[in-house]
Amino acid sequence: MNKIGSLEGLRGLAALVVVNEHLLKLFFVMAFSDSAMRNGGVLGSLSFPPMNLFHNGAWAVCVFFVLSGYVLSQSFFSKKRGEYKEIVGKVVARYFRLAVPITGSLLLVWIVMSINGIYFGEVLGITHSNEVDQYASLPLLSDLFKQGFGSALFLNDYAYNPPLWTMSVEMIASIGIFIIHMVFLSFVNHKHAFLVRLAMYLGLVTILFPTMYTGFILGMLICDCKNNKRADTFLAKYAKIWAPLAICTGIFLCGYMIRGLYTNPYSIVTFNEFNPYHEYLYNTWGAFFLVFGISYSKQISKLLSGSYLIALGKISFPLYLTHYIVISSFTSYVYLALPIDSHYYKAVIAIALSLPAMFVVAYVFEKLINEPTVVYSRKITSRFRSTFASSPEKKDVLMQPGLNG
Description:
This protein has 17 helices and no strands. It is mainly alpha-helical. Helix 3 (57-77) packs parallel to helix 7, helix 4 (84-114) packs across helix 6 and helix 6 crosses helix 7 (165-185).
């Protein structure tokens, strides 16, 4: 089983779910309708599980958060723990790892807007989507740099690129994870260190309930179990029993959406009471059970480790950052330019033509911006390691933020 490959494949699928959500929100808003508005047609049925799993971006984002907690903890729990100041270096590297690609996506927005390539507002006027037009006026380049290197990471500023709303959660949670690693270092040689950490996870989940930061802690828990010999052996021994149950539970919880899905079968978990702020609560735990079960399921891991899914996972972060820009420009232009009266056919053709364009843009973004940033982030970590570490250690890899850790 290729454990990393399976997570990469899952990450790629989750990125596609986010893309699908934004496409459907623009062209087929009925897929997100409340129960009272559903017309019983094909689009209305998309609101119900399991069909909504293909466009419920909330569970996909929760998977990103759980995977981030997992990947950012991998080097610590795989015995390459380093020292306190080295962990500080990881925080600095993480900042640039997120800030540079974010700024790159904002510069792409500026370029497209500069050549009058945004047609998003015109499409909104036709489809009556609830999406907000973010492109009323051309921003100053200086403001975009401030956003990319500051407010997007710490002030939840996602102007001009809505998917950036997750980046402040990523940055703050990353800092929190590294602080927790520092605390873990203080009792790393304790006889019952693993049990102490389990108690800390429980405490942190209780404190952070029901925020989205819970997902990062749960990702750390999975990583800790995978790298603890006794826990891993025990879980692997009975995986055929509990892993399928965990995956099914995860799928069930990931299907919960705020759009009217508070009746059966979700009345079981909502206790017949609907709270719109609990979507990410249920989806976070769904993502936890899903990732945990997949990490111990040989069959599912093998499926997710296919070459195409791994390739998709590799460009998942660039795809996440750039797809909304493609939708606002190329996809919208194709929809408006098609000489067809039927909204349905125009939308389907526009989507079909824009998906390859999204992959191309993401691939170019990966090569020009994302990969160089990964290399630079590794150098920052290595510099702190060589400067402050008391003994040489192997290099650890900072993987894709959000989508890749």
